[in-house]
Write a structure and sequence with these properties.
The chain has 384 residues and is mainly α. The chain has helices at residues 2-11, 18-47, 52-72, 83-100, 120-139, 146-154, 156-167, 170-187, 191-214, 222-232, 243-255, 280-312, 317-341, 359-377; strands at 13-14, 102-104, 107-113, 116-118, 380-381. It is globular and about 55 Å long. The two termini are 14 Å apart.
């Protein structure tokens, strides 16, 4: 019997998800094409180089692919040792924004490390996945107790508050909290608590919207209040907070079913501000039409499905939760981005994973994919 088991171990092969790699590479390549399409006009006007944004994104993508390859070949269990350190480091980087932060487009969210700029919120997303997966795997059954549950629930709150208040980046704070919520939901079967938290969140959001809408002063709530009013009636704020949303909706509507053709968008010619960033999905709709938009959504659905398979076959809880965290990160960002572009929710400034312009975003997303690949490599296929 022992000899038979040993022979089976010798025959075991490590699993490699080629479809996952193909999907990521395809989304990256498609993103580079769309970034050039959306940004070449603006880049040529600003710097005289139509490939300015493309070159920067390509460099970040290459660095990310190298990091992905390296991380995928490191046993993922090693990262448990550095999870707490990473959590503290992400807090430290966020605090560095106060004295050393660089302001862009009215937001102070970046710091420079040598010639490279870094957005600490992206580091915080990765570190949050690592620390929550580590804590949940070490707590085991204790996570089902009230103390264990609320301890896990409290971990992301300081980071979310700092990202929100220090960087004025509520969208990233929402994403970090959503990642934690989904990981905790998978790690514990106590669903009643999640229902209560969800209902409380919905009630709170509805109360804020009602307060802003019924306020006598339209400026109540600051610029976020104006965004909510512009979401409810974008035409009334066409020259202000509703301008970007309206132009995005015009782009979506003008694309029709088949689109105008790659590179033939009109809205990217100065009508949609920073079209290569958060609103790139609207240009996809305009140039490639409804069919192109559906194809992009399906690619993300298949990507999430492949991650679900890897999580279900992981050797331990830590690996499964790592994959769930990455899966939650990507799915939440995709949903929020498309919801913002289609004016389903107020404008929150969320990028489309792998496709929108942003060096820090694509770099750390690819590192997360490297973690998923590392978990996948630990799965053994046996020939019985």
């Amino acid at each position: 019997m022992a000899d038979r088991n040993r022979r089976r171990e010798e025959k075991a092969e490590h699993y490699f998800d080629y479809s996952l790699v193909f999907l990521v590479l395809f989304l990256l390549g498609f993103g580079l094409v769309m970034i050039y399409s959306t940004s070449s006009y603006k880049a040529n006007l600003d710097s005289g180089d139509p490939t300015y944004y493309l070159r920067k994104q390509l460099m970040a993508s290459i660095l990310g692919l190298i990091a992905m390859f390296v991380v995928s070949h490191i046993p993922y269990q090693i990262w448990q040792r550095f999870a707490i350190l990473g959590y503290l480091a992400s807090i430290f980087l966020i605090l560095l924004i106060i004295p050393f932060g660089v302001e862009r487009n009215g937001a102070k969210r970046w710091i420079y490390i040598g010639p490279l700029s870094l957005q600490p919120a992206e580091v915080a997303k990765l570190c949050m996945i690592l620390v929550l997966a580590t804590l949940a795997s070490k707590m085991g059954a204790k996570i089902r107790t009230a103390k264990g549950f609320w301890t896990m629930f409290a971990v992301p709150l300081p980071v979310c508050l700092m990202v929100w208040k220090i960087t004025s980046n509520m969208s990233s704070a929402i994403i970090i909290f959503a990642i934690a919520f989904l990981m905790l939901f998978v790690a514990t079967p106590e669903y009643k608590r999640f229902i209560l938290i969800g209902l409380a969140g919905i009630a709170g959001a509805a109360a804020v919207v009602a307060m802003i809408v019924n306020a006598s002063d339209p400026g109540t709530g600051g610029f976020r209040g104006e965004r909510i009013l512009a979401w409810l009636d974008p035409e009334a704020y066409a020259s202000g907070k509703g301008f970007q949303t309206l132009q995005a909706l015009y782009a979506i509507g003008s694309g029709g079913i088949f689109g105008k053709g790659l590179g033939k968008s009109m809205q990217k010619l100065g009508f949609i501000p920073e079209a290569q960033n958060d609103m790139i999905f609207s240009i996809i709709c305009e140039e490639l039409g409804l069919l192109g938009a559906i194809a992009v959504i399906l690619l993300f659905v298949i990507l999430i499905w492949r991650m679900m398979i890897i999580a279900n076959n992981s050797q331990d809880l830590f690996g499964a939760l790592l994959v769930v965290g990455v899966m939650g990160h990507i799915s939440v960002q995709v949903i929020l981005n498309i919801a913002v572009v289609t004016n389903t929710i107020p404008n929150t400034g969320v990028s489309l994973p792998f496709i929108s312009y942003g060096g820090s975003s694509v770099l750390f997303l690819l590192i997360e994919i490297g973690l998923v690949m590392s978990v996948a490599r630990s799965i053994r296929l046996r020939d019985y």
